[in-house]
Amino acid sequence: MRACSAATLQLVGLISTLTNGSSASGRQIGLRLLAAASGDAASPPVLPPNPQLAPGTAFTLTKCFAADEVDSWAALTGDSNPIHVDGAAAAAVGLAVPVLPGMLLAALFPAIIGSNFPGAVYLSQTLKFKQYAPVGHSYAATVTVEKASGSRVRFDTVCRDATTGAAVVEGTALALIKQQQQS
């Protein structure tokens, strides 16, 4: 079993949010995955209500990236910087262990927005990389509604080391999100 299995289960738990309000088949897939993760296929968990766009509303995803996931990211993006995958290369530049690519962590922000608001169109993202993020640690990415104006929603974004609470990546995101009609 991978070292990040607990974080993987937290990610699966996010499915209850991202499938809520989407297609019935997507909802059923999410329920089946959650039931399988909990070991209880007979009684799937109750889904939370649809996300709201009120200022201050926050959505968090906790994730631990294992070395094999970093290898996959490097292969997919062509990021051949060895400090991400090779301990000796990381040590040669003064790092204790390989570190995550900053953009891999930043990719959690659109994942949260797109998963909580299916059909959202990501318009922009500003980023400040605050410190190194060692491979194998857990990170909590949070997007918080700052302002909603029509279909444009601005989010504050922060990714923190889940153990220390230290900010690793900060910024803001802007997305187009169709407002749900009230019945």
From TrEMBL:
Start and end residues of each MaoC-like domain: 67-165
UniProt keywords, alphabetically: Signal
Keyword hit for Signal: yes
GO CC entries: mitochondrion
Domain of life: Eukaryota
Signal peptide start-end: 1-24
Molecular-function GO term, any one: (3R)-hydroxyacyl-[acyl-carrier-protein] dehydratase activity
One of the GO biological process terms: fatty acid biosynthetic process
UniProt keyword Transcription regulation present: no
Record protein name field: MaoC-like domain-containing protein
Organism: Chlorella vulgaris (Green alga)
